[in-house]
Write a structure and sequence with these properties.
TIM Barrel; 8-stranded parallel beta sheet; Sugar_Epim/Isomerase
């Protein structure tokens, strides 16, 4: 059965000792792992937090984004070089923390638009950078799982069909894919078809409600989601990604303007919901 994780972005983007009590409570609730945001903090912060997680018996995954100055899909060779350096820095930080997955829209710059549909050369540029990053990640035993985002946050990869094409172009075993229920709710026709499309390269799943609140409280087609993942014998992470305004700077950067649910409501009820659905569709 898939391990269950919780993304700390519900509390904070930066990692610090302030996250230790939160990790301890998440462990006590019953989580298998924690997901953290990777930014440009000193690598020692990730090493220290990773040591704390290991002492608690928690595993870890990470999430990241790239900006216009480190855009793998850029036509500028200099920016693509910066993108690779940025990805390598994220891999170093994730490795220091003991993480095994880096997920997120690392294929192209977040909320940066060319004002045209994605071009073949942009996929080629992105795949070249991701392949090189995958080779670097291989040394750290880390798998990169690029994420398709909705059309308001990204234009290169909105659907599982587009993401599958990019992963196949990348052609590296350490570059797989993730499925996020929040974004799929906006971009996919039917969840079962989308999940089956990405299944050959699926390595990570974000469990995220349509409003980014507590999973199970909204209108995501959860039965379709859990049934299809069970039919495909998916055993990777199921990690809750939910947002609040606890970290104002981060919330503003992703246009979160109101509270959806209290973080501990999301953590406690979300875990119970996932376990219930896993049991319902256990094979």
């Amino acid at each position: 059965m898939s391990p269950i994780g919780f993304n700390l972005l519900a509390w904070s983007a930066p990692i610090s000792e302030k996250m230790n009590p939160i990790a301890e409570r998440l462990k006590a609730i019953g989580y298998d792992g924690i997901e953290c945001f990777i930014d440009n903090q000193d690598i020692s912060a990730y090493r220290q937090f990773g040591n704390h997680l290991q002492q608690l018996g928690l595993q870890s995954t990470t999430v990241m984004v790239v900006g216009p100055d480190e855009n793998p899909a850029s036509e500028s060779a200099r920016i693509r070089e910066q993108a690779l350096d940025f990805l390598k820095g994220a891999i170093d930080r994730a490795h220091a923390m003991g993480a095994t997955i880096i997920c997120g829209p690392m294929h192209s710059a977040f909320a940066t638009f060319s004002r045209r549909e994605p071009q073949p050369e942009e996929y080629a540029y992105s795949a070249e950078v991701l392949h090189a990053a995958g080779e670097y990640a291989k040394q750290a035993n880390i798998v990169l799982t690029p994420e398709a985002l909705n059309r308001f946050e990204c234009y290169l990869c909105n659907t599982m069909e587009q993401l599958l094409d990019l992963i196949r172009r990348t052609d590296h075993p350490n570059v797989q894919a993730m499925f996020d229920t929040h974004h799929a709710n906006m971009e996919e026709k039917r969840f079962p078809d989308a999940i089956r499309t990405i299944a050959p390269v699926l390595a990570h799943v974000h469990i995220s409600e349509n409003d980014r609140g507590t999973p199970g409280d909204g209108h995501i087609p959860w039965d379709d989601t859990f049934r299809t993942l069970a039919e495909l014998n998916y055993t990777g992470w199921m990690t809750i990604e939910a947002f609040t305004r606890n970290d104002v700077d981060f919330a503003n950067s992703i246009n979160v303007w109101r509270e959806y649910n209290d973080p501990w409501d999301i953590a406690e009820n979300g875990l119970n919901f996932i376990k219930k659905m896993q049991a319902k569709y256990a094979r």
